């Protein structure tokens, strides 16, 4: 059955035909001109999602995506020869986490067991930048932990595997990760030296998205979540291959890790995400403070990583779907008999819709 947009198109065409009008006459008739404008807008609204889906399929499933990624790498190396942000390593005990700014806003992470000199890298977008860090640290790369298949997270897998023959590539078998050698399922563990990572299935952004949690408790540190495109500072990934319900469940997994968990996201999106969040919650002191801090950081091109799950719960709208103030700001109310999580998924869907439109403008 035709929806309102399709009916607007049909009404304009029918009216023009009934009057025997061509395109020129249509534009001169005020009533038909308004109908034509509405019809054009309706067609664009219908075509937009379709074109987006086609573009995403080309990027994710064909060689065109890889060629686009290579162009991204080339442009980023020229524009940011030292990386898009100034980052600092963080250490506790024998653990050293080195954020590597790559492409125009991505982060790879070199995670080192300084006792044995063995290391894992999370999402090696640019193999040259990662290899430079490996050489500077003088470590042996044992593992690539890939959160998902998108080229801006997996594009360096092949080159690094070629340079480090014994290196294994971990990720989900559901996600067509390049060079995958060791497919993982939910809650499987990966050991690198004395470091232990737990893989968590977190679908939503892609069907096989995984996040990795470093257990730093033996070294006196908090859990460390390498979230890929699941969760950003004040944001979350787009729902390319999942429903709001799926993404909500995955975000709940992250929240369940504990408030002291350090969040190491796949992108430097903090300022954009915090600015968007401030448009939803106009009276949130924690959000105001974090936005001010992030603005100062980004003015100096300093990295905003890491934050904590506890912090994120105070200002990240994608983790605040249960909060009445956010629900009211969106104009949403829980329906009679609606399960709580179903309502939260509706809230998440609306926040994601608004964020997509905000980014587009």
UniProtKB/TrEMBL annotation:
<dbReference type="Pfam" id="PF16123">
    <property type="entry name" value="HAGH_C"/>
</dbReference>
<dbReference type="InterPro" id="IPR001279">
    <property type="entry name" value="Metallo-B-lactamas"/>
</dbReference>
<protein>
    <submittedName>
        <fullName>Probable hydrolase PNKD isoform X5</fullName>
    </submittedName>
</protein>
<feature type="transmembrane region" description="Helical">
    <location>
        <begin position="40"/>
        <end position="60"/>
    </location>
</feature>
<dbReference type="InterPro" id="IPR032282">
    <property type="entry name" value="HAGH_C"/>
</dbReference>
<dbReference type="InterPro" id="IPR017782">
    <property type="entry name" value="Hydroxyacylglutathione_Hdrlase"/>
</dbReference>
<dbReference type="GO" id="GO:0016787">
    <property type="term" value="F:hydrolase activity"/>
</dbReference>
<keyword id="KW-0812">Transmembrane</keyword>
<keyword id="KW-1133">Transmembrane helix</keyword>
<keyword id="KW-0378">Hydrolase</keyword>
<keyword id="KW-0862">Zinc</keyword>
<keyword id="KW-0479">Metal-binding</keyword>
<keyword id="KW-0472">Membrane</keyword>
<dbReference type="InterPro" id="IPR035680">
    <property type="entry name" value="Clx_II_MBL"/>
</dbReference>
<dbReference type="Pfam" id="PF00753">
    <property type="entry name" value="Lactamase_B"/>
</dbReference>
<feature type="domain" description="Metallo-beta-lactamase">
    <location>
        <begin position="105"/>
        <end position="267"/>
    </location>
</feature>
<dbReference type="InterPro" id="IPR036866">
    <property type="entry name" value="RibonucZ/Hydroxyglut_hydro"/>
</dbReference>
<comment type="similarity">
    <text>Belongs to the metallo-beta-lactamase superfamily. Glyoxalase II family.</text>
</comment>
């Amino acid at each position: 059955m035709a929806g309102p947009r399709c009916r607007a198109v049909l009404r304009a065409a029918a009216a023009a035909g009934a009057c025997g009008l061509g395109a020129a006459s249509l534009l001169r008739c005020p009533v038909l001109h308004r109908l034509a404008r509405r019809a054009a807008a309706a067609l664009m609204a219908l075509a937009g999602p379709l074109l987006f889906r086609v573009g995403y399929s080309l990027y994710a499933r064909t060689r065109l995506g890889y060629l686009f990624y290579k162009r991204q790498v080339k442009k980023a190396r020229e524009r940011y020869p030292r990386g898009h942000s100034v980052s600092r390593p963080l250490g506790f005990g024998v653990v050293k986490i080195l954020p590597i700014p790559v492409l125009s806003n991505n982060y790879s992470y070199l995670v080192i067991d300084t006792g044995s000199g063995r290391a894992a890298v999370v999402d090696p977008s640019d193999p040259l930048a990662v290899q430079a860090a490996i050489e500077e640290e003088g470590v042996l790369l044992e593992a690539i932990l890939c959160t998902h298949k998108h080229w801006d997270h997996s594009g360096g897998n092949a080159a690094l595997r070629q340079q480090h023959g014994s290196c294994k590539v971990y990720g989900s078998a559901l996600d067509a990760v390049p060079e995958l050698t060791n497919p993982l399922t939910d809650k499987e563990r990966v050991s690198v030296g004395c470091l232990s990572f737990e893989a968590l299935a977190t679908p939503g952004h892609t069907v096989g998205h995984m996040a990795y949690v470093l257990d730093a408790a033996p070294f006196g540190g908090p859990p460390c979540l390498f979230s890929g495109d699941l969760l950003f500072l004040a944001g979350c990934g787009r729902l390319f291959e999942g429903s709001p319900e799926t993404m909500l469940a995955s975000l709940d997994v992250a929240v369940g890790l504990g408030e002291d968990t350090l969040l190491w996201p796949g992108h430097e999106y903090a300022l954009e995400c915090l600015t968007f969040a401030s448009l939803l919650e106009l009276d949130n002191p924690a959000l105001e403070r974090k936005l001010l801090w992030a603005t100062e950081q980004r003015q100096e091109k300093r990295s905003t990583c890491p934050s904590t799950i506890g912090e994120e719960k105070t200002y990240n709208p994608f983790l605040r779907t249960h909060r009445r103030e956010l629900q009211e700001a969106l104009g949403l109310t829980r329906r009679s008999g609606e399960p709580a999580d179903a309502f939260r998924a509706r809230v998440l869907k609306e926040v994601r819709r608004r964020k997509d439109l905000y980014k587009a403008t």
